[in-house]
Amino acid sequence: MNWKPAGLIYQARFATVITDDGSPTIRDLGIANQECMHHSGGAYQETQYIYGEAIRAVIKTCPNPHFLVVGLGLGYIEILIACEWLKSQPSGHCQVISFESEAYWQEQFQHWLLDEPSELWEIHQLRDDKFKQDYPEEITQAQDWLKNHLILENELTYLPQWQGQIHGILFDAYSSKTSQELWQEDYLIKFLQHYSAEHCLFVTYASTGSLKRALKFCDFMIHERGGFQGKKESTWATKNL
Ligand SMILES: C[S@@+](CC[C@H](N)C(=O)[O-])C[C@H]1O[C@@H](n2cnc3c(N)ncnc32)[C@H](O)[C@@H]1O
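Above: inputs. Below: predicted complex with S-adenosylmethionine.
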């Protein structure tokens, strides 16, 4: 694995890591466990494996899907939704609501959206090169699409306008060691009860006892799914789907 310090100002805050499939991720040095945003085996491949199939399933089954992403980070999931939507060219309307507690990641992503220079320019290019292999056309339109279909929010909270409206929940928070409160059973129950639509798919890279209990309590059915590259389990859960 190749470590590369990022821009001078933020050098002490994070490091860029090139994962095994050539796509970049970030190790956040400012948080307790200095956790990486993605699996070292491949940031792009992990996003495809954990969230790609779920995104395609929601697009296929919901005419006007609403996606909710927890943890924008480098925006892999949001870009994947854009590419998949553009590839399948459905007639409905798609909305993506994405939460990110760190203003810095939001700002950097906004710069990319607007084609403005930024400290993460190189990282964004590397990420997009990876998308280009599977979505040569769509990646060139993803920015414009996201400008019209993405709503960026701060820390995860309960927005009244999306209550009971979300068909695809893509839960990509840091692990329970780092983001303890987001993985607690009571918190997850409140979150699922607030956001999930009548028909809803919930996916995440991890699987914990409290998450399983919360999903069952909220009438989700849990389907067995292995984790990415040797991880024992990930979570794929459906409600009326
Ligand atoms: C695993 S990373 C997400 C990676 C991202 N999905 C990507 O594709 O690059 C987790 C992200 O969640 C953000 N985060 C942590 N706590 C949060 C909270 N309470 N609400 C929203 N975002 C949070 C972190 O700042 C970090 O960017």
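The first strand starts at residue 2 and ends at 5.
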